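Handoff note, outgoing to incoming analyst
You'll be picking up this chain. Sequence as last confirmed:
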Amino acid sequence: MNLSRKSKGFSLIEVLIALIILSVSLLALAGLMATTTKNNSSGSHMTEAATFAQDRLEELRATPWTMITTGSDTRQGATGIVYTRSWEVVPNTADTLRTVAITLSWNDRVSHSIRLLSVIGQ
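Most recent structure output, in case you need it:
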């Protein structure tokens, strides 16, 4: 049998190089997936905290004017994160408007907080 120098197909070295390139690419994608998952989780917690702040602001707007006072409480989110929510109410000099600052804090490997400012009128 006479073997042709121009044989069709891939050599073993070409296949191994292709597998190495594929492996490096897949490892890079795995790292990207971990980062993406972490960022999605962080965004979810931020949205949940903003929702809790907005809920408290709406509760204060529905509260009788004389009972709107400073306070704090805790809320547990759907993911199990515990949010500490505090609000400070400051009336203006004529007591016709009240400035409300709502702060939410939570810890998911790192401490975070957001603050919502608003004004409530009589």
